[in-house]
Write a structure and sequence with these properties.
By secondary structure, the protein is an alpha+beta fold. Helix content is about 50%, strand content about 15%. It has 2 domains: about 160 residues, Up-down Bundle (Butyryl-CoA Dehydrogenase, subunit A, domain 3), CATH 1.20.140.160; about 110 residues, Nuclear Transport Factor 2, Chain: A (Roll), CATH 3.10.450.50.
């Protein structure tokens, strides 16, 4: 079998979705998908028995290589590291590629939690829990025995168990964020205490490109102090919208008509437990 242009259209959303979830980077995922298809086009058609399995294996292994080489860069990163936000239009299911994007495991909270996993744990968790691959398929893709894959998955799930409580109800979370914005603007402390965990943590990602907190900000009082400080001297043309970011509502901030930052949330038990403020211009979509 030979890879065709039709295969490119069919499998590209799946491959991008694997790459993005593995790496937390849109640009890196897109590059790896392109490299994968270039390699596939050059392959002898006799060597490709199962197109989907072959393409997924190439993408996954390229991501594993990238994660290993990126470890040093992550260690040198200035301040907290947030995954690159994926700004989406509201999905309605009319496009087949949306089915892949609508799967779980896309939220900023989930992707950030993936950083606590070893590369092989990340791969097995995604392939099994998000993309429903069988253990036999995963074993072929990452070149491990099925029994080892099961152990890797068990270990990975234990390490990120708390993310399973994340609320993924878009409209419910959107309503909560609206209430947060209103309470924040009116400085209604009692309402904020109902909406935000006392132990909330804010991760501010400027990447050394813009001014941002170099360490996570912990506790409700400290997080609110930082947010009030940030919004105190904003220019008159400042405005924000609640947009679909990684299939969850997020606050998208504009200054001078340009996208300035994105504030995403980890919501659990109807409370904001974590916030992810991404300001690094290299991570912000141009739109």
């Amino acid at each position: 079998m030979q890879i065709s242009n039709e295969d490119y259209q069919q499998y590209k959303p799946l491959l991008f979705s694997i790459g993005y979830r593995m790496l937390g980077s849109i640009a890196d995922a897109e590059d790896i998908v392109q490299e994968t298809f270039l390699k596939a086009y050059q392959m002898d058609e006799q060597k490709i028995d199962n197109k989907k399995a072959y393409l997924c294996k190439v993408v996954t292994n390229r991501c594993l290589d990238e994660l290993k080489s990126a470890r040093h860069r992550r260690e040198q990163y200035v301040g907290p590291w947030n995954p690159e936000p994926l700004l989406l239009e509201k999905l309605d299911g009319s496009d087949p590629s949306e089915m892949v994007l609508q799967k779980e495991g896309l939220s900023i909270a989930y992707l950030r939690m993936m950083e606590h996993l070893a590369p092989d744990e990340r791969a097995v968790l995604l392939l099994r829990e998000v993309f429903d691959f069988s253990y036999s398929e995963i074993a072929i893709i990452i070149e491990k025995k099925e029994e080892n894959c099961r152990k890797v998955l068990s270990r990975a799930k234990q390490r990120i168990s708390r993310i399973e409580d994340e609320s993924l109800d878009y409209e419910r979370n959107k309503s909560l964020i609206h209430r947060f914005i209103q309470a924040f603007q009116m400085q209604k402390t009692e309402d904020l205490l109902e909406l935000i965990s006392e132990n909330v943590t804010l991760y501010s990602d400027g990447g050394g490109k813009v001014k941002a907190a170099l360490r996570p900000i912990v506790s409700l009082s400290n997080v609110l102090a930082l947010l009030y400080g940030v919004t105190k001297n904003v220019p008159n043309d400042f405005y924000f919208e609640i947009r679909n970011v990684n299939n969850q509502p997020a606050i998208v901030v504009f200054l001078n008509g340009t996208l300035h930052s994105i504030l995403s949330f980890y919501i659990c038990n109807d409370k904001i437990n974590e916030m992810y403020l991404t300001m690094n211009p290299d991570k912000l979509p141009i739109r």
